[in-house]
Amino acid sequence: MRTIFCLGLLLITSRSYALAADAKPETISPAGQTQVSLVDGKWHVNGQVTYPGTKAEGLLMNVRMVNSTFEDRRRPEFDVEANTAAFLAQIPSYAAHGVRAFTLCLQGGMPGYEGAVNSAFAPDGSLRQEYMDRIRRVIEACDRQGMVVILGCYYQRQSGVLKDENAVRAGLVNVVQWIRDNGLTNVVLETANEYPHRGFVHEVLRSPEGQAGLLRLAKQTWPQLLVSASGYGDGKLHAPVAEAGDFLLIHFNGTPVEEIPTRIAALRKYGKPIVCNEDDKTGRTAARAAELCVENGASWGLMLNQLNQYQPFIFQGADDDPVVYARLRELTIPSKPEPQRQATGMKFLPPDVDWDHPVYQTSFEEPADLEDWRLEGGLRMSVAGGNLVLESRPGSTKSEANANHLVCWLTQEVPADFLLEFSVRPENRQQGLNIVFFNTRGLHGESIFDPALAPRDGLFKQYHSGDLNGYHISYWAAGRGTANVRKNRGFHLVAEGTDLVTDGPAGDFQTVRLYKHDGTIRCTVDDALSVAYDDDGTTFGPVWTHAGWIGLRQMGHTVRCQYGHLKVWPLTSGK
Q: Residue 503: what pLDDT?
């Protein structure tokens, strides 16, 4: 098995790359949490092949967003920060539709007019701090989403900023060292965009031999970094460039759709992963281009000139081109298996609970009992009559209550395997939906209270499709009839059972128990099985076997609900 890693240094003792003379030193960020690698010619992120179980397995579907960090020093009125912020806000939307990488560039791209001055390089090849800070902010945002960045160095319209070929080489070395020293483990390098372009003023950039030399220089500077250079829009590369890079970067702007398979086939002789990271087709034509790339084992990348490339730069997530992004999602998202449906209603008594040693218990007798709980969203939490009371602002319909969702987290970490028990009494059993989150952690194993995670205020997608992994069960959903188990991140429905709360005894408390042992999940209401799920670790990711946090969620239209006598026990099998 051949594995090539792009990994950050565990210990950084100094910074050896050159910053422009006016640059101010900054704190080096910790090593990245998203690590990209190549294993036997397939792309992997954090040790897992990309898009497992799909047609695009092992590929890197991407979008060119080189002007998300654009500046023009001749037009100071352009709001650089607002432009970058607009892109950052849409990264989750692109990611949700199958995009796993973005191409950025330290000299941007064509903004729709000539004469712009947009470069992270000073004339001597040193790096301009302000520009690099902006680039790093985008890279780190991608890192948090588990995404890769194809970072370009030189662009034909800006290469003249560099005073000579020595500056070009120095600039490349500075970029490689900057990536390494900042621990940006989700980055691969594109030394030049369309290297044969006549717009490059330096021979070392536009000649195949010179470009191959730059690729070798990058590898000598940091052998672990994955590097390549992109060719013209005809999908072709010169042999010296193809042989010097770790993967093959091609463009399909000028390539008719029907010729894509032939162009890909011609590159297979190099035995390296093929990544198209620029194709300006749109709509159905672009969707077909993506299909053909995937069918022929190549990654594909979209470039939307009129929206993302040319001013005014527009970033709308998947709404940029709904047809293309819908197809990307189809190619990269596994087809959903039917949720498990097991018989419900029978008695289920947990077999291996350590009843004598609860890890947490409370009776909610006084306000001090709330110190172990943290409320996100909603109106308030309080204690009354020996119960926890969670309330949202009143709303008579689901739509009116959308802004009132809440999650109340137990701040104590709970073992991976456990039994949770609590009593519950909704104010109105015919209106509302309640959920339990469990085994919940950050995507990279963080505490859910880690300040580096995105803020949460009760909005549902922040919990099921944000930066948290875990499970949740909707044990009560008035009007739906089912109790559901979902696996996160991704809101994947994996099991359906029976809602035993809606038609429960009016005015009475019911006892909910949630049992979790490895992949075995059982939820009961008054000892009757409500929903069951057996996670085999092959559906929507691995079994969540980590310790984590438990949260009680109410959708806004629940309005008010009481909980009592909450306890958590470990399992004897986990001792």
A: 95
